[in-house]
Write a structure and sequence with these properties.
Shape: globular
Subcellular location: Cytoplasm
Oligomer: single chain
Mean pLDDT: 92
Strand content: 25-35%
Family: Belongs to the GTP cyclohydrolase I family. QueF type 1 subfamily.
Order of helices and strands: EEEEHHEE
Distance between the termini: 57 Å
Structural class: alpha+beta
Catalytic activity: 7-aminomethyl-7-carbaguanine + 2 NADP(+) = 7-cyano-7-carbaguanine + 2 NADPH + 3 H(+)
Helix content: 10-25%
Largest sheet: 4 strands, antiparallel
Keywords: Cytoplasm, NADP, Oxidoreductase, Queuosine biosynthesis
Function: Catalyzes the NADPH-dependent reduction of 7-cyano-7-deazaguanine (preQ0) to 7-aminomethyl-7-deazaguanine (preQ1).
Low-confidence stretches: none
Length: about 150
């Protein structure tokens, strides 16, 4: 019997799900549940589709969370985020929906997501969501994604 948690995707050939609703997320035990710390996922090549034109939209996502009993397994997160490449939704729906789903399923102490979207119609749209105030004493590094500067 292995001490490793059972995961559906880790170490296996796993196709990208066709939709976020079809995507499953795996969670693994937090090895330090009594220590407040921050986990960050930077996703510089996130894509989804515009719900009006069907054209691709691109974003740099930054997901920060303070785990409680479990952590999201990174390959399942990659597959979940990849499932948005054929998903039609506005920037706000994608960003907030990802944050709410992770928070609902994982139940961390705290979670925030920043969606730094590249221009659509000449206007970059940045979307931010967090579950609540961060826990006292949790170190919060800035997300430091520069604002869109175009060709400079």
């Amino acid at each position: 019997m292995s001490d490793q948690p059972q995961t559906r995707f880790l170490g296996k050939d796993s196709p990208i799900p066709t939709s976020p609703e079809e995507a499953a997320l795996d969670y693994v035990p937090n090895p330090r549940p009594n220590k407040p710390y921050l986990v960050r996922f930077a996703v510089p090549e996130f894509t989804s589709l515009c719900p009006v034109t069907g054209q691709p939209d691109f974003a740099h996502l930054v997901i920060d969370y303070a785990p409680d009993k479990v952590m999201v397994e990174s390959k399942s997160l990659k597959l979940f985020l990849g499932s948005f490449r054929n998903h039609q939704a506005f920037h706000e729906d994608c960003t907030v929906g990802i944050g709410e789903r992770l928070f609902s399923e994982m139940q961390p102490h705290w979670l925030r997501i920043g969606g730094y979207w590249y221009p659509r119609g000449g206007i970059p749209i940045d979307v931010f969501w967090q579950s609540d105030e961060p826990p006292a004493g949790l170190w919060l590094p800035p997300q430091e994604v520069p604002g869109y500067r175009g060709r400079g």
